[in-house]
Amino acid sequence: MTHPTTLGELRQTDWAEPARHLRSVKDELRTNLLCLLESGQEIFPGIVGYDDTVVPQVVNAVLARHHFILLGLRGQAKSRILRQLVTLLDEEIPIIAGSEINDNPFAPISRHGCNILEEHGDRTPIAWVPRTQRYVEKLATPDVTVADMLGDVDPIKAARGGHVLSDELTIHYGLLPRANRGIFAINELPDLAGKIQVGLFNIMQEGDIQIKGYPIRLPLDVLLVFSANPEDYTARGKIITPLKDRIGAEVQTHYPPTVEHGMAITVQEAWTDRNGKRVQVPDFIREIVERLAFEARSDKRVDQRSGVSQRLPITVLETVLSNAERRAVLHREKTVVPRVSDVYASLPSITGKIELEYEGELQGATVIASDLIRRACKGTFEARAGGADVEPIVGWFDSGSALKVADEERTDLLLEAFSSVPGLLSLVQRTGLAPTRDAGAVVAACELTLEGLVAQKRISRNDQLGYVMARRERGPGTGGSGLSGPSLFA
Q: Model pTM?
């Protein structure tokens, strides 16, 4: 389709209708959103767990033509939601060619746009701006200036054009005017200096700005959206009260409400395609990784005010797969199948993503991360195989046998070792932990079973001997050298 290239040509299209070319960006968003609602289409694709909470509130804010803010801890998809607002804009809009602030050809607001329209009339050149270029985002930092946000007088422009400094043509526009007829997003709003927040007042209420004290009327057409961490109100800065008063809606985001929601997000976001290698991730491994985040979000040793980002299970799953991939390459195994031991190998992906309280600092991040993995294994095992008869397995260890499992051992050797434990293989098949007879899946399920029993304190595990009888049942005569059974040493 050929677009009109001049204002005269544009007047011959439906853009000539005032209801079209004079429509504000808020009305544009509202109209397109109503169309999506009527057609039953998904409004925010890829946003999981917000269907009954955050999404309806954001929809209400857009329908009400409100500026709004998303309040939530880190890793709650705030920025993603803001960026997806672009999909509610028209595919393209016409502007006066060369305009820095997307001047409407029918109603320009900049001196530059007005001069071109007066000079050329219907021959005014038209350019088309796609909706992706109508979204401007700024990360708020303490060093952001008024000039960055609103603009400043450019002496070079004044010298080259022969203008006095008070002439509007000497302005170098900031990010906010350049977002005219679009969406302007500010992430981490409390980090923005108070005097900069004051500069947003007129835009939100009166729709104009002032630059260098000159009373320049720029009735910008823009939707302002923000994101913030609630703790930032006191930790690093605050949103000043008059600005909060001008924000139409405050939407609280949250972490996934269920493990299933979290797993869906992690599966969607994690990089699991390993360059054509065959990757088989057991469902219970995904569940362990997700439960790990849920356990961290309820642990008193972890700073809950800081939050536990959804990026934690995503990066953990990627590290788990990487450790399994490394093992598969070393042993020339065709299929990459992660195990519980690979989850323990992902400690570096956990310790950097949790902020600890004083008690946690005393214990150390590695100790706490290992404990979180153990509890996640327990929850997963009990959810999938709780109530199963594990007495033959426990009895074998109680008899003095031991089994040490090396995380880099070959799959076939581990399967042989697990076969020596009475009832272990039959349990993982009977409970569906290993729905197939694939060796990698069976070995992973056996590891989960043993880790689950350790978490339940039915058996024990130590670095020297591996899986052994539970400490509380061990008699004085049973020591390390007296234990028997298979042993796969690293």
A: 0.87
Output the six-digit token pair for 311: 């990026």
Burial degree of 437 (CB within 10 A; 0-12, 13-18, 19+):
exposed
d(CA 261, CA 282): 17
Domain ranges, residue 273: 255-385
* Structural domains in the chain (count): 3
pLDDT tens digits for range 243-263: 889 999 999 999 999 999 999
Q: For 351-375, what is each residue's pLDDT tens digit?
A: 999 999 988 899 999 999 999 999 9
**Same domain membership, residue 140 and residue 117:** yes
Same domain, 132 and 235: yes
In a domain, 1, yes or no: no
For residue range 461-488, list pLDDT tens digits in order: 887 778 999 865 444 444 443 444 454 4
Task: Decide if 449 contacts 427 (C-beta within 8 A).
Answer: yes
Residue indicated by tokens 């360059």: 275
Amino acid at residue number 52: D
Q: How far apart are CA 85 and CA 68, in angstroms?
A: 12
Token look-up 């150390």 returns 364
Do 54 and 140 have their domain in common? yes
